What does this fold into?
Amino acid sequence: MAGPAAADFDAASYPPYETCALCHGLFGQSRTAKFPHLAGQKPAYVQSQLEAFLSGARTNDGGQMASIVTELKPEDFAVVVEWFSDQEPPEPSPPPADNVGMQLTEYAGCLTCHGENGAENVPHLSAQHAGYLAKQMRDFRDGARSHSDAAELHRKAFVSFGDEIDQVAGYLASLERSP
Ligand code: HEC
Ligand code: HEC
It folds into this structure.
């Protein structure tokens, strides 16, 4: 029962998404809300965020992503984007106990853009970690995530949500993500 010989080990042959696995999971499903699920996320959106971290336009990550992306070779970007967006989407979380989040989401029209048939640059929010979504919403609200054209719309919406940000996040996380 010999395992692979040590001489066969070749770090350079490891695919670039191995470096993402520590935080995001090898198959894009992360264990904690600090790290977003990437599995089944839209490729154009994932690509746009990697570019934003690389250029320094998106900085609301405590510096983690900003340094990781500098280690990717130019040809690695397409490989990691394809790998994660092709994975099975995460399971939604259990539905919240009340309808507050659902009502606010409908009232604010979030799913007109974020619904399952939305544009390629609009991320899936469904089945994402609620804690991650809530952090992003507070980052938009407080101006810590301001790099996209959509930032001002989000800032205004989330100022008006108050603490109900958590209920909206909980509702969105409970929605099924279509592959
Ligand atoms: C040391 C931990 C760590 C590693 C390794 C890491 N990331 Fe991240 N990543 C994060 C954190 C933390 C965030 C969320 C930042 C925030 O809260 O805004 C994030 C966010 C992202 C996002 C934004 C997702 C969204 O929904 O907006 C993408 C895309 C991403 N990472 C891709 C990658 C890829 C591809 C790799 C490997 C090349 C990688 N990450 C490696 C910690 C990490
Ligand atoms: C006009 C279309 C549009 C509407 C309406 C809209 N969004 Fe967005 N949303 C976007 C786009 C585009 C992005 C990506 C922004 C970027 O590139 O950083 C985004 C990003 C997000 C993110 C970050 C997701 C991630 O993975 O990091 C969250 C959370 C979010 N929106 C929540 C909401 C909520 C809640 C509402 C309802 C109040 C809403 N959005 C309404 C277009 C929209």
Q: What stands out?
A: The mean pLDDT is 93. The CA atoms of residues 5 and 172 lie 47 Å apart.
